[in-house]
Fold this protein.
Amino acid sequence: MEYMRTRFLPLCLVLACALGLRAQERRIGMYAIGFYNLENLFDTEHDIDPSTGEDKNDYEYLPDGANRWTQLKYEHKLRNMAYALADMATDRLKSGCAIIGVSEVENARCLSDLCQQEPLAQRGFRFCHIEGPDKRGVDCGLLYNPRFFTPAKLWLQPYVMKKGVNDRPTRGFLTVQGSLAGDSVTVIVCHWPSRFGGSPLREWAGEQVRAEKDSIVAANPDMKVLIMGDMNDDPFDASMSRALGARRKMKDVKPTELFNPWWQILLDGRGTLKYDGKWNLFDQIVMTPNCLPAGKEKHYPTLTFNRAEIQYRDYLMQDSGKYKGNPKRTHAGGVWLDGYSDHLPVVAYFLRNL
C-alpha cells in the first residue's frame, strides 16, 4: 500500500500542474477594437451647423434629393449597419468588439438610432460624438460596450488649416480617453481628407495627429494610444509612414513612433476597399509601442496587441454583376442596392491577464 501511495503522489502533482496551466490560460482575456467606415449614414432631415448657422450640404440624402433618401432607406441602412457592427469579431469573441470607431456619420441622432437597433441594443452599446465642421456634415464617432470600456474624457481635436495646404475647415480628430480592462486608453478616430485634395492634406493630418499623440503620451507615459480611421491612404503612403510615423515591423518601432499591422496585410494582397479592381487598405488601427508584446512569453500584464484582421463576410460583398467581388454599397451606379458600405471593417485584438 505504501508503494501505491508513492506512485500516486507524482501523478497528482502532474495533473495539478496541468490543470493549473489550463486555468492560467483561461485567465487571459481577449478584447477586440474595431473601425468601420459606415458610408454616408445620413438621416432624412436637413442639418444646419450649430456653431455657424450655415446649411450643411446634405441635400442628396433628403427624400427629394438625388438618392431619394426616404425613411425606409434610412431604416434599412440602420438595420444593415447595426448587424455588421454587432457581427465584428464574433468569430473569435461571442461578445464582439469592446470599442468601434466609425466614420461618415451625419450626427448624434444617427448614432443614437444606430445604438437602438436590436443587435447593438442587446449589448447596451453607447456612443461618443462631437459635431464637426465638415461641409457635408459627416463626422466620426465612437461606439462602445460599457461592459468593457468606460469613457472619461472626450474632445474634438481640430484639423488646423495651413497656408498652401488647406483653405477650408475639414473633419477633426475625435479623441476619447477612458479605461479598458483596467488600462488607460486613448482612442483617436480619424477620417482624413479625400484623395482629390492631394497628399499634402493627409500628410498635414498625420503630422497633427502625431503631435496630439505625443502630447498625450508626454502627460501620461503609461497611456496606450490607438489611432484609427479611414486615412484615405495606404500604410506605405507618406501620411502614414512618414508624417504619422507608423512602422511596418515591430522591431523597427522607436519610442516616439507607432506600429502599423496593416502594412503587411496589404502586401499580402488583402484590403478594405477596391478601386479599378485593386485593393487598397485605407482603414487602419495603429498603436503606441507600449501596446506591443515584450517577447514570446504568454504573460500580458497590460493590454497587448495580438493580431489584426479585415472582417470579410459574404453578406458584405457584391456577389454578381459589374461590381462582383467589391464591398456591397448602399448605392452604386445610381441604384439602391440596400447594401452596407464601400469599405470593409477592421479589427485589432488585444490580450490581457484577468
In short: The chain has seven helices and 17 strands. The mean pLDDT is 92. The CA atoms of residues 129 and 141 lie 5 Å apart.
